[in-house]
Amino acid sequence: MPTSRIARPIAVAARVDRFSYAIRNIVAAARTVEAQGVRVRYLNIGDPVAFGFQPPPHLVEAVERAMRDGHNGYLPSPGIAAAREAVAADYAAHGVNVSPDRVLITTGTSEGIDLALHALVDEGDDVLVPLPTYPMYTAVLAKINDLPVTDAEVTERVKGRLKKLETQIFEIKRDGLDEMISEKILEAEAKKKNLSVDDYLKNEVDAKIAEPTEEEVQTFYGMLKNQFGDQPLDQVRGKIVGQIKNTRKGDVYTKLLEKLENEANVEVYMERPRIEVGVDDDATKGKKDAPITVIEFSDFQCPFCKRARATVNEILSTYGKEVQYTFRDFPLSFHKLAPKAHEAAECAGDQDKYWEYNTLLWEKQPELAVDKLKEYARTLGLDGGKFDSCLDSGKNASEVEKDTQDGATAGVSGTPAYFINGIMISGAQPFANFKKVIDGEIREKKRAKN
Question: Structure pTM?
Fold first, then answer.
């Protein structure tokens, strides 16, 4: 019995639905516009004839002559032998030895990549791809049921972590550079005095460390008595003297290096990675045109953030008008009381008491339940009714969430996190680490003016 066949259109494979290629994608839009009567000039076409460029007569004659002589265009699949030999010779000239039989000539980049991916490459192999090329070959990192996951999608997902990693890599390399600078400066200074570095340091550091006085030993013992348990002073005296002298040795060594580096002609070309972070509309201290901008992402329930208050205050007191400081919200997901505490601070800001409330929250940590937050507002003399209404309504929840998203985008994953002119410092680090970055920024700005 005859059966009828029903024709149906051939659909595009689902696995290419999400490919993106700037040049080809725009063609569809161009054709839509063209159908509306607008003249479109397609500049993405690789055929020169489309633009009125005809092949030179001598090439036409050469092709015609070759075909009459029996050269029908058929070539060995690996490519013309002479071309493969020329490629091998060129690589040899650049120090890469490869035999011609290991060279394959393809008709284009796309064919070459396709051949490599299907026939020559195993999982984990690296492929060097010339650019520009087609993103479908290089941008797909995985497929799930034929749906691709592209490099761009993954990069977007983890861009915050990548930025933080970039900063960490810089810090490691910069620490290594600083170590080498110190070593070379010390070697040069020791050489001037015909000494080894060890002997030079004995003269310039060890010989300048004074013995601790009895009063200093007893003071140290009293401060750390709990750590020594029931041991009397005489039993731990040697340990205490050693700790005091080691601390003094570190201070003398640091000051010596600072002096020598200031006297030496040291030029550092490494540039710290910078991350663009705005102040948004968050609470800010200092002038907008200050040369140093310090932005902190913090969490009112975080004990490390509380510990960092002394460092922040030291930065502000040390640099004064040279610093603009902004506090942005970043309540961590496992600190359940923190989001409302940050909303409460914003509510206090609505009554022009943001910084007073901010300071009080640190003092009262970890007592941050909602009833306590309302109590603190009244302690500061705020309008209790307005404050309660603001806090209960969740009016500022979106502001806190926006800060958190901005921080995550910038690479913040823990608190506290700071950005000094876009340079990230993560964690409750000592003032000296901030001073190093800030002083460097101030020097660079002065140098730029001169």
Answer: 0.59
